[in-house]
Amino acid sequence: MTQTLEALSRRLDTLTSIRGIVHTMKTISAINAVPYERAARSIEAYHRTVRSGLQAFVARAGPIAMPAVEPADSVVVVFGSDHGLCGNYNELLAEKVQAELAPTTAGHAALRVLCVGAQMHDALAGQGLGPESVLLPPASADGIGRLAGSIVTRLDDIGGGEPHHRKVTLAFTQRAGRGQHEPVLMPLLPLGQAFLSELAGRPWQSRSLPDYSMPSAELFAALLRSHIFASVFRASAEAMVTENAARLVLMQQAEQSVDDRLDEVKGQRRSVRQDNITTELLDVIIGFEALRKSPRSTPHKTTRPSPRNTPRQT
């Protein structure tokens, strides 16, 4: 169906406005990812310091004997998005949580889910997982510490102040090779034996022997809480980086699609405009030819009486 020039012009204006919105969203996603990436690098440096403290504690106090009691609660903290326009970012992580964690709780206590982001809440509900609480994701890099502190406090309340009384897993999306990202499940509590063995087997990089003066239980609890906080902080920062990266890729694809559609509509408008101009020129030419070929009208001659027939006045 051939469209009019006015309709094509309106479509072109609409597509131009959409392209401006998409370009703005792409720019915002690119800008927002930078501070979250810096926060992830910063917390990694802090986490290395905490692990060094745990290593010093193990070197001074000896291997840490973890209780063999089965944790009473199984908790998963899922980091998702609070906004859309990021493709299947939330759905992929929700499917991984359902596939790998839900079967492990069969015959035990129900899996307790702490969710970050309203969009992730909907994705988990679609997989049959009902989060018991939904937390707001950070609006900026400064809010990551607030979110991490709130999650650590909730985990303390669930475990009754004893970190080994619950099994905690962090579910988030992290960066992969070649600009890709992938959902991961990272065990957080209780501390794995491999993690403790790696600390005990690591050589102490100093000529001074580690020592401490505060009670061992209090020191280990403080180091463990710092380890939990740093892990949650890093997971949140990594989730925000990958969310903005996913939105950036989607907006780039949308911008390319809008550009292709703009080129198509511009071509259609040029064709319709050329057809209109051609039609008007043909109308002018046909009218001119019709006027040129029509017979010219001859003027009527008036007859004057002959002088001979004119009566003489007396």
TrEMBL record:
Lineage top rank: taxon: Bacteria
Major location (coarse): membrane
Alphabetically ordered keywords of this record: ATP synthesis, CF(1), Hydrogen ion transport, Ion transport, Membrane, Transport
Sequence ranges of Basic residues compositional bias: 293-303
Residue segments, region Disordered: 293-314
Topology within the bilayer: Peripheral membrane protein
Protein known as: ATPase
Organism of provenance: Halomonas urmiana
